[in-house]
Amino acid sequence: GNIFRGRFGPKKVVQVSVVQCQVFVTAQKSGSKKSQTQRSSIQDCYKKMETWSLQDLTLVDGRDPDVDDPCFLLHFDEVRPITAVSCSAKYTMVRALVALSDQYCQSSLNLQNFDYAYIKPTTYYYNRGDCIVLSKICLYACNLVCLSMCPVADAL
């Protein structure tokens, strides 16, 4: 599968590289061949296929937001199809591209055919854990107020 990685130069120019995992065929004792990924180091596992400047990226097309499709299109001078390992990885890559574009290119990235709730979540989405904790604290406080107002029977 193809994935991308960002690289920062001395002038903070963001480059997008498409790399491909190298798969090697090894012979086993039984005579059958097994395909496996070499894991010695990152440089040995991946081969750089192409590199572009993030500033040249005009559009990121998710193709169909209603289907779990790990493929998407990067529009540079030509359209480059990219295949992530999963739909979740596709959205992770696009969130990274959006953040890099916002931070280093000072421009919004044009997105098409994505579920935007997964690209730029709202404040509520980020703080939903905090909201749950706050709701529990309010519930406990209400319970304490109610309990403090209840008459207590004297036990003798």
Notes on the protein architecture:
With 156 residues, this protein is an alpha+beta fold. It has one domain: PH-domain like. Helix content is 34%, strand content 31%. The protein has five helices and nine strands. The chain has helices at 42-45, 87-105, 116-119, 123-126, 128-149; strands at 2-8, 14-21, 23-27, 33-37, 46-53, 59-61, 71-75, 79-83, 111-112. The longest helix is centred in the last third of the chain and has 22 residues, at 128-149. It is elongated. Residues 1-9 have low confidence and may be disordered.
Features of this protein?
31% strand; 3-stranded antiparallel sheet; 5 helices; 156 residues; alpha+beta; 4-stranded mixed sheet; PH-domain like
Give the helices and strands, then pairings.
Elements: E1 2-8, E2 14-21, E3 23-27, E4 33-37, H1 42-45, E5 46-53, E6 59-61, E7 71-75, E8 79-83, H2 87-105, E9 111-112, H3 116-119, H4 123-126, H5 128-149
Parallel strand pairs: 6-9
Antiparallel strand pairs: 1-2, 2-5, 3-4, 6-7, 7-8
Q: Give average pLDDT, whole number.
A: 75
Counting DSSP H or I runs of 4 or more residues, the number of helices is 5
What's the number of domains? 1
- Order of strands, widest sheet: 8-7-6-9
- Tell me the name of the CATH class: Mainly Beta
Pfam family, one: Sec3-PIP2_bind
Domain Exocyst complex component Sec3 PIP2-binding N-terminal: 12-104
Protein name: Exocyst complex component Sec3 PIP2-binding N-terminal domain-containing protein
Organism: Nothobranchius furzeri
